[in-house]
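Justification of resources, computational component.

The compute hours requested in this renewal are based largely on the per-chain cost of generating structure records like the one below. Each record pairs the submitted sequence with a full structure-token output. That output is archived, and it is also reused by downstream analysis tasks.
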Amino acid sequence: MNKGFTLIELLVVVLIIGILAAVALPQYTKAVEKSRTAEAMQMLGDLVTAEQIHYMAQNEFTTDLDKLDLTFPGVSGGKIVTNSYEIEVSANDEEFVAIAERKGGAYDGEGLAIKVDKNGAIDRGFKGTDAVFNGLAPQWQSNKAHTIEAAS
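The structure output for this chain reads:
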């Protein structure tokens, strides 16, 4: 009797592996995007906290990240650049806005935004199509999904 596998048996194994990969890959991609989104949420939260501390001490918002009590990796000209996001800040006398825009991947150009006013009220929203991040960051919404623009 011959020892080994028939072609049909090998094809069935390859088919099963293909089906498992087709199911697992989208779940893996979503998990990676959730972790990248969580990183951006954490950085935005830390940035707003540092900005509030600066506002209490100086009575003004700043876009100079070097004046804050935090050190962020990848600070370049008023922006924080990571592998996945570019966080840009803007401010005026009334409010501070930080927008984390996704770089690369399926969500390129989409992002999260946070705004704090001089009274300390925090508003969380989105940049781009808010529906994209509803699944990745449902806890980011304050009342309802909406878009936040840079401070002018």
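The CA atoms of residues 31 and 130 lie 19 Å apart. The chain has one domain: 7-140.
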